[in-house]
Amino acid sequence: MARRRGKQTTDDTAVVAPPAVEGVRHAGPWDSSERSPADDQQYIDLGPLKVRVRVGLDVQLPTDGEGGDIGSVVLVTDDAAIELRAFAATRSGGLWDEVRDDLILEVERLGGECEQVDGIFGPELHVRVPVDLPDGEKGFQPSRIVGIEGPRWLLRATFLGAAGLEPSDEGILMDALRDVIVDRGSDPRIPRESLLLTLPPNATPVEPGA
Questions:
Q1: Which pLDDT band holds residue 205 (cuts at 50, 70, 90)?
Q2: Which partner from 26, 102, 108, 119 sits 20 to 30 angstroms from 126, CA to CA?
Q3: 3-state DSSP helix/strand/coil % of the chain, to nearest 5
């Protein structure tokens, strides 16, 4: 029997290559049917999101409001961060179009500026929202909001800090986004329903603003 190096396990069982993904997600992020953390110890299992961490990233799990629910994970570098949130969606897609329109209206309500541009994952938003600086002066918080749709889910990634001020399609935060695995589960869910995260062992949720 012919064998190819690197394609056999020690018990002579053929290794199955992961399925190819077409479109904007050809290099990730992934659905759980497309990729698995397997034995990669750099992955943290947060339930609906599997996040691969690396040197230079700090992982924070802020809670939403007083209920203690964890709706997002934030990956932080020295001068930038990315917030990841996952939502249930329909098979037909199109949720990001609706959410993006709502975000534009919210930015306008806050007196901010919002520009829609074509990014590597499709339409994305570059946002500047007015904030009060620690010294009492007025300033702006820049962010880049990216929406990525998969099988019955929407992953929203918000780049903050330097990554929001000067958007780039390269770097440690974009690599982290590409590595994300979304596990929506099979339960019926309402479109836009937040896929709440679960704490991994030895982790502690962070209160908002902490």
A1: low
A2: 26
A3: 15, 35, 50
> Is the Cβ–Cβ distance between 162 and 79 less than 8 Å?
yes
Residues 6+ apart with CB under 8 A from 19: 33, 34
The stretch 49-60 carries a mean pLDDT of 94
For residue 105, how many C-alpha atoms fall within 13 Å in the half-sphere facing its CB? 6
Q: Which residue has the tokens 């040197």?
A: 55
pLDDT of residue 202: 67
Render pLDDT for 93-142 as a digit per residue (tens, 0 to 9).
Answer: 899 999 999 999 999 999 999 999 999 999 999 999 999 888 888 899 99
Burial label, 45 (beta-carbon count in 10 A; 0-12, 13-18, 19+) = middle
CB neighbours of 115 closer than 8 A, spacing ≥ 6? 125, 126, 127
Given this model, what pLDDT does residue 38 score?
Answer: 85
113-119 and 80-88 strand pairing: unpaired
